[in-house]
Amino acid sequence: MKSIPFLLLLAAPALGQTPLEDTGFDDTTPVTDQDVVIVRERAFGAGGIDLSAYGILGTPDFVQSIYVRAYHASGADRHVTRGRLVFPAGITILGVITDASGLGGSTDDGVLTASDLDFGIGGDPDLYSGPFRGLDAVSSSEHVFVRSNNTVDFYLHQSLNDLDDFRVLIDHGSSFPANVDFDVQLIVDNAAVNLDSEAGVRVGIVPSPTTGNGVWSDANGLTDIPLIGTSTPSPGPGFLADPYAGILMHRNASFGEGGTLEWYDLANEVLLTHARSGPWKDLEAGPFGRLYGRELNYGGFVTVDLESGSEGRTDISGLPPAALKPTLVSAIPGTDDLLIFAEGSVNGPVHVYTVDVRTGVATNFWTSLSGAQPGTPQGATVMGNKGYLLGQEGDILEVDLTTGAMVSTDLGVNGSYFDIKVSPAGNTLLLLYRTPGTVTGNVTEYDPVSGIQTPRIVADPTITFCTAMVLDGSTLWIARRAQGSLTATLSTYDATTWTLMEVYPESIEFNVEDIALPPASTRFDQQYCTQTPKNSNNRVSWITAFGSPVVADDDFELRAFNMPNNQFGIFINGPGQISIDMPGQSYNTLCVGPTQGRFDQSIFDTGISGSASLQVDLANMPTNMGPVPVLPGDTYTFQAWHRQGGGGAGFTDAIQVTFQ
């Protein structure tokens, strides 16, 4: 990607075929319907334009600028617009102008900048002038990525009253040919994946005096936008984002706590932000098709529902007072448990325990001897009946999950270690570390029985500043963070031949803390009725089901998250889906009905985590007519009601389950 701050020299206007040039554009978008604004700007023909000062050699001719903008009105919530511009094969993208110094400053001064003067249309400075122009002034999440000679991906994130915009400079070749058009594909808001992104495209001025202008406020994309000629744009498909078809990343957006949960969509080869995460770290695909991480503030763990993007904290109970907050979390295959390592003081003991993800109850608790703790724990995994904790200096703590016996080993290899995973063979471990001084990446295979270490990837500059890895069959994914002039990347290796397969140079800013494969999609509940406004904790309460929908299994559990802390509540059910706004003193929507059954014997307290659970007796499902047994084929809807902090009450979202 080439960032061009401004242009020095104008060239002669185009000859022959004439590219379309908008006469103006609507510089604002309604707060409730933010659209991406596309403007066809000035073109330069046979005389070309000198861009040599900006890394583009020679004097390209038959050049045109396409301006992209998402304007955010003052006082509204954050909005996200992301998508892709696709130009025809005969067009070459020369570069993009993204930085605020080239597109404007931090104030709305009503003045055209140098690049506005070069490419701008309409002659009105107020069309272009605005606060925090470009992509680097407010949000670190914003990016524009030139994917190929004719494709550009963009991610515009507006907050408060900032303005996101950029220019794409394209070269038509040796002339302006007839009948040239391009497409816009948006990644739109989808409750199934919680993308928090908005649809809608505006082209040129409204109303439209030139070809191809207009408003498509609900379009997921737009095809056949004319650059030259008279083609008629029409609504087109956007990206069909699939969170189960990519690599998940927990990206630290500020080198502090928390961050952003993202995935790299392999089908579309685009980086997607899934949800802003709270104060938690680590990614681990675990039981019931969920992701799990460690909570930083209170010592619990976090459950993330990938399909909805909902997240919620669970407190861990049953631990002795000496237990500490989780340091690293790993799922135990074939169980409903997580293995948690809790870091003690320097040279002190390590606390190790297993936790049932459904109940939050610690089922085992072991403590290592003083001095056995790996320094600065970096990674954890489970192989067979053993758990392993990797320290940054190359120490490994092995824990027998049957007896609790522990063995500490010093690998004796100088380096900074960052991750540990089970190899494709299933009986050895892969260790990711950086070479001291050069910080290039290495992977070694370690046999904990024999103690033999076999180098597999040695001093590879492709994974300099590596941070995390994950295995997908025999494909090893390694993430590196951005550092200096290096961009963050995802690289793949064949874990049988140990050869580099591919590098995904997507524009991933800041530090990738961890990567993971998506969990298996095993959800059997259908989520609906996302609540607005948020509750008194400024969050959206949500409900989900664990266990099994098979009646004969008699293993069905409800769990609600993100409710106000230390409030009481109750689970309810119904035979179908309804929508009644603000019943009684509730601030949002009742979604189960038309009649309700109440689990009166299980009134809960949300505690400090704002969560609650209920093991449902399927032989006695409450209804308005009294308890009845659940039969295969029966459909029920479920919701939780809770008190609000400061008075009033509210509901979680709702789920529907068809029992088998």
Report on the structure:
With 660 residues, the protein is mainly β. It has three domains: 200 residues, Immunoglobulin-like (Sandwich), CATH 2.60.40; 271 residues, 7 Propeller (Methylamine Dehydrogenase, Chain H), CATH 2.130.10.10; 133 residues, Immunoglobulin-like (Sandwich), CATH 2.60.40. Helices cover 2% and strands 44% of the residues. The protein has three helices and 47 strands. It has a six-stranded mixed sheet with strand order 4-7-2-1-9-10, with no helix packed on it. The chain is globular, with a radius of gyration of 28 Å. The N terminus is likely disordered.
Q: Care to count the β-strands?
A: 47
Number of domains: 3
Radius of gyration: 28 Å
CATH architecture of the largest domain: 7 Propeller
Distance linking N and C termini: 53 Å
Q: What is the name of the CATH topology of the largest domain?
A: Methylamine Dehydrogenase, Chain H
Secondary structure class reads: mainly beta
Quickly count the helices. Answer: 3
Short description:
The chain has 660 residues and is mainly beta. It is built from 3 helices and 47 strands.
